[in-house]
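Justification of computing resources. Each target in the renewal requires a structure prediction run like the one illustrated here; the chain below, 267 residues long, is used simply to show the kind of job we budget for.
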Amino acid sequence: MIELKTPGEIALMREAGRLTAAALAAVREAAVVGTRLDELDAVARAVITEGVGEPLFLGYRPRSAPSPYPGVACISVNDAVVHGIPGGYRLREGDLVSVDCGARVRGWCGDAAVSFVVGEAVRADLDLIATTTRALEAGIAAARPGARLGDVAHAIGTVARDAGYGMMADHGGHGIGREMHEDPHVPNEGRAGRGVRLRPGLVLALEPMLIADGTDDHVADPDGWTLGTASGARAAHVEHTVAVTDDGPEVLTRAPSSPRSRAAPVS
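Resulting structure tokens:
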């Protein structure tokens, strides 16, 4: 069932979104060569708990998972696309890092992700991240009242495919509100004009996941959580929580230093 949120509920989700953005910004700042992934996870935990929020991912266990998720953030490196468990790996020069994090504030959720390179980056990685970001921006711009869910999926997928990138098969965004994953599922590729009509109060987490070599297949790590590219190619993942409003899409997971605006680029 799709639940439309009231303006007051969206205001609470905005608080959760800003806390999520603050955690991601702190992790990105702390991510330097030699830093352990579990140290970055501790940074995210501190920001969320000191901000009087609850880590959204910690202990989360969907039916498909073998065990509850053990971290506050999902930290995926290089060919890991999503759901990487933050352990003892130390970041190396040129690593492509994707961090997915969420917070719950007064019962309402925010969910976002960023990708970046540690140290000196090669052009191919920067292009991959930039295109993943453009795909997200296109999806956000399409999330307007009266549009269809397929319009959002088509906007994301068109940017990715036109640039020659793959997208992780069978994965995409989702509704969000009282729970991290709510209806509807939001594909990262689809036909314009199809699907659920977007109405004010609908809140979606949009999250393109692009693969550098144009392939779509993924494999599961033995840890039961990490999903990596089947080909070993690098991947990038970006995400924002977006509310459909009468005035258009509003990004709720805006970075603290950014002005609040409509359909603005990923921070």
